[in-house]
Amino acid sequence: MFGELTEKLESIIKKLRGLGRITEKNIEESLRSIRLVLLEADVNYKVAKEFIEGVKEKATGQEVLKSISPAQQIIKIIYDELTKLLGEPFRDIEIQPTSPTIIMVVGLQGSGKTTFCGKLARYFQKKGKKPFLASVDVYRPAARKQLEVLGKSLDIPVFGMDSNEPKTIAKESLKECKRIKGDILILDTAGRLHVDNEMMEELSGLNRELKPHEIFFVADGMTGQDAVNSASSFLEHVDFTGVVLTKLDGDARGGAALSISAVTHKPIRFISTGEKLADLEPFHPERLASRILGMGDIVSLVEKAQESVDTKEAQELEKRLTHSEFTFDDFKEQLHHLKNMGPLDKLAEMIPGARNMGIKGMQMDEGALKRTEAIINSMTPYERITPKIINGSRRKRIALGSGCSVQDINRLLNQFSQMQKMIKNFSRSRSAMNSMANQFFAAN
Ligand SMILES: Nc1nc2c(ncn2[C@@H]2O[C@H](COP(=O)(O)OP(=O)(O)OP(=O)(O)O)[C@@H](O)[C@H]2O)c(=O)[nH]1
Ligand SMILES: [Mg+2]
């Protein structure tokens, strides 16, 4: 996510931190560099300008410059302003007292609407709700089939009807949703290449017909100003209640994420970070600000971990993590869960400092995973909980037992001790993002 933007911002911050004394001139220079980086990421010109002015106003006060740690204070100001720029704190979808809660999903062609409908259905299913999916995309031949396949994979019902009239389909899907006692109706709409009158009229009609409680505008997060401009044009016709940014897993530039809320005054509500149905995250501005500045996002990481293990296991793991008692048995268990959590490099950007530890870009390799398991299986139970006793002769024995070389054992032991260190930090700071951010500012 935002690889280039983060790298550049990190280096500006590092430079700032390296300065013994900070003058107004240093601040000017840093802010000029930040402005350039933002514009390169395709952030809206006005938004970038206002952001820089906001930071400048707060950072050039005498209290900041005279303080014991001016660099940290300035970085904290940048973090706070970035959080503000990203928009409102997360507001979940409110479930209506009378079912169903109706959600309409709109946006340009290929932005990820249909995929998002599936992700949202899964999101509600995980919360124990009963979602119902319907598509009024009567234009693309395979569009309705696509939603049907997604629904089937989740075991979530999808409305089907032989009609090519979006309004009729919408009306009937609502009836059917009520009949089957669904809690949430998620309506997928057709995309167009450009915002055109015909499409807007259709959406306005559906809006009048269904009166959705939420309308989500789905925007391709890979783009910058284009997404912001089309969001603005949509808003002139359909008053959406929130933005969903998709495709933030790729080489997203950051422009859309950083300007869309400031320009449209509509909050980003969810972000998509992959093609899989599990790749949906509620949008928390402070967490993204932290990730953009290369400071990680422990809270989301813990949430992701909790989603892939069952609650009891998660609680036990959390308890052990708090006491920093991470053992090889836990490691083995976690390797399994890691597979469900997604690629390691995606997780690494959520771990503070991981980028500098060379974890970035690490690939999950099935063969390596099996070897690692074999090595752990060849350890005695006592060795697994006290790896420091694994001396030369024990290493040889484990190597023989697992069919690996002693070098493999050494490598794993090193990795494990690195992981233990990381987990110590992780458990120390896992309680809240704020305390994490504060620690980051204090520790660096
Ligand atoms: N990498 C990545 N791909 C995504 C994400 N969301 C959707 N996609 C992919 O983007 C492509 C388009 O997604 P759809 O959900 O069909 O988009 P749509 O807006 O419904 O498209 P139309 O109905 O044709 O307007 C598909 O190949 C998806 O797999 C995401 O968050 N990350
Ligand atoms: Mg679609």
Fold and architecture overview:
This protein has 444 residues and is an alpha/beta fold. It has 3 domains: 3-86, Four Helix Bundle (Hemerythrin (Met), subunit A) (Up-down Bundle), CATH 1.20.120; 101-283, P-loop containing nucleotide triphosphate hydrolases (Rossmann fold), CATH 3.40.50.300; 298-443, 434 Repressor (Amino-terminal Domain), CATH 1.10.260.30. Helix content is 58%, strand content 8%. The chain has a 7-stranded mixed beta sheet, sandwiched between helices. Residues 358-362 and 430-444 have low confidence and may be disordered.
What can be said about this structure in brief?
With 444 residues, this protein is an alpha/beta fold.
Q: What hetero molecules are bound to the protein chains?
A: guanosine-5'-triphosphate, magnesium ion
CATH C-level class of the largest domain is Alpha Beta
Q: Give the termini distance in whole angstroms.
A: 23 Å
Number of helices: 21
H/E element order: HHHHHEHEHHEHEHEHEEHHHHHHHHHH
Task: State the fourth-level CATH superfamily of the largest domain.
Answer: P-loop containing nucleotide triphosphate hydrolases
Shape: flat
Q: Biggest β-sheet: count, sense, barrel?
A: 7 strands, mixed
Which SSEs are present, and which pair or pack?
Elements: H1 3-18, H2 24-40, H3 45-59, H4 62-66, H5 70-86, E1 101-107, H6 113-126, E2 131-135, H7 143-154, H8 166-179, E3 184-188, H9 197-210, E4 214-220, H10 225-237, E5 242-246, H11 255-264, E6 268-272, E7 280-282, H12 285-292, H13 298-308, H14 311-322, H15 328-341, H16 344-348, H17 366-377, H18 381-385, H19 392-402, H20 406-428, H21 433-443
Parallel strand pairs: 1-3, 1-4, 2-3, 4-5, 5-6
Antiparallel strand pairs: 6-7
The site of magnesium ion has 6 residues, from helix 6.
